[in-house]
Amino acid sequence: MGYEERFKKYLSGELKGEEKEAIEEDMERLEVLLAFMDKKLDEGILEGEAYGKPQTEERQRTRPEGSLGKAVSRAVNRKLRRYAAITGAAVLVLVLMLVFSLSPVLDMIYYNPAKTQEVLDEVSDSAVVYQPFQLSLAVYMELFCGEKGFSAANIREEGYGRYTIDVYTHINGEVTHHLLDLVRNHLYRQDPSWNVSDIPGNAFTHYYKGDLGCSIAPQEAEKRLEKLPETFRVRAALSFSELKDIEELSKFMDKYEAQYLYVPIEIQSAGFAGYWGFTPKAAGYVSTDLYSKEEYPYLDLFQYEGEGSYPPDVLTQHVTSMLRFMLAEENKKFLEIFDSSVPGENVADPLKYEEALKYVEENGVNGYGVVVSASKEQLLAMLKDSSIDGVYMFDSTLDLN
C-alpha cells in the first residue's frame, strides 16, 4: 500500500497501529521544519546582503545614505518571496488534503446514499461494489409497503450533500418511480406516498368489519371476477377470518399458486397506524454480502439454500432480522431522514421498531391476510378457501405472458 493510500486511510480513520503512528510522526516533523524556517526568516529580516553582520557606529556613519533602507527593503522582499513560496506549497498541500478528506468529512455530516462499499467475492476473487443505502431502503420498503413490489434506487449526486433519488418499485416487469430530493439531510418528497402502502387502511376485515371496511365478501368477488378476461392479473388483498401463525401461513401459500407480494402481520406499536409485514420471496438482487449472516439470519431470503418454499422458521427469522437491522446504529441517520416521526425534522423513532420486535419475539409471526398478484383462475381458487373472509381488489393488468 502506497503512502498516498495510507494517508487517505489516516484521514478516514481507518489506519491503525504503527502505520497511524508513522503518519503522525511525519506531520510532527513537518510542523518542526515549518517553525524552523519561519524563525530563520524572522532573524534575517534586517540583514541585507551587504550588512550580514551587526553594524558598528563607524560603519553606520560611513555607509552611503539610504543604504540601510535599501537593505531592509531587499530583506523584506526576500522574506515575502519566501513566504509566498511557502504559502503556495501550503495551499497545494491543503488542496490535496481537501480532495482526499472533504468527502469523508462531509459524509460524517450529511447522509450520503451514494456511498459505496467494496466487498471481496471469495469465489471470483474480485471486488464487488455495493451501496449500503440500497439494503436499508429495501428492508424499510418491505416492512411497510411490500405490495408495491421490490424496491431499489437510482441516485444522482448534485454536489456535496445534494442528491436526487429515484426510488423505483417493480412487479412483473412494471416499474413505478418515486422521486425524492435530499439536500443536506433534508428530504423533499416529490411523491409523498413513496413509502406508504397502496392498500387502504380499511382493506382487511381483521380491523374493519361491516360498513367500516372496503373489502367485499368472497362470493361477491367471485361474481366480479367472472366478468374479467382470462388474460388479466389482479392485485388483491385477501383477509383471513382469524389470525394465521407462520406455520398456517406457509401451508396456505404452499396450497395456492400466486405471486405473494406481502403478508401484513399483527404488531402492537404505539402511535403507528400503517401496515407492518414481509414479502415471502427473495428480492430481485442479492445483498447477502452487506450484512452479518450470523447477526441477521435470512435478512435477504437469498441466503436460504434449501429447495422449495421457505420453511416457517426461516420466514420468522427473516422478519425479526429486518426489525433488528432497522435498529442498527448504521441505520440511525437513514431513519432520521426517511422515517422521521416529526414532519419537517429529522427525528428517528426507534421505539416503534423495538415494540414491534418485542411483540414478534413473544408472539411469533401472525398474519391477518395476504396481498397477491394472481391470475383470474388462481384468485378464484383462493376465494373458495373457508378461511378467506374478505377481498379488496385494487388494480388489474393485462398479462401477455
* Series of secondary-structure elements, N-terminal to C-terminal: HHHHEEHEEEEHEHEEHHHEHE
Beta-strand share of residues: 15-25%
Shape descriptor reads elongated
Structural class: alpha+beta
Rg over CA atoms, rounded to whole Å, is: 33 Å
Polypeptide structure, described:
The strands form three sheets. The chain has a five-stranded antiparallel beta sheet. Strands 3-4-5-6 form a four-stranded antiparallel beta sheet, covered by helices on one side. The protein is α+β, with helices and mostly antiparallel strands and 401 residues long. It folds into three domains: 3-109, no CATH class; 123-189, no CATH class; 210-398, no CATH class. The longest helix has 43 residues, at 67-109. It contains eleven helices and eleven strands.
Please summarize what this structure is.
The chain has helices at residues 3-12, 17-43, 57-62, 67-109, 132-145, 218-226, 246-255, 312-326, 332-338, 350-363, 376-383, and strands spanning 117-121, 126-130, 150-159, 162-171, 174-183, 186-189, 232-245, 259-264, 277-278, 366-375, 388-398.
Helix and strand topology:
Layout: H1 3-12, H2 17-43, H3 57-62, H4 67-109, E1 117-121, E2 126-130, H5 132-145, E3 150-159, E4 162-171, E5 174-183, E6 186-189, H6 218-226, E7 232-245, H7 246-255, E8 259-264, E9 277-278, H8 312-326, H9 332-338, H10 350-363, E10 366-375, H11 376-383, E11 388-398
Antiparallel strand pairs: 1-2, 3-4, 4-5, 5-6, 7-10, 7-11, 8-9, 8-10
Helix pairs in contact: 5-8, 7-8, 8-10
Can you tag this structure with a few keywords?
four-stranded antiparallel sheet; alpha+beta; 11 helices; elongated; 3 domains
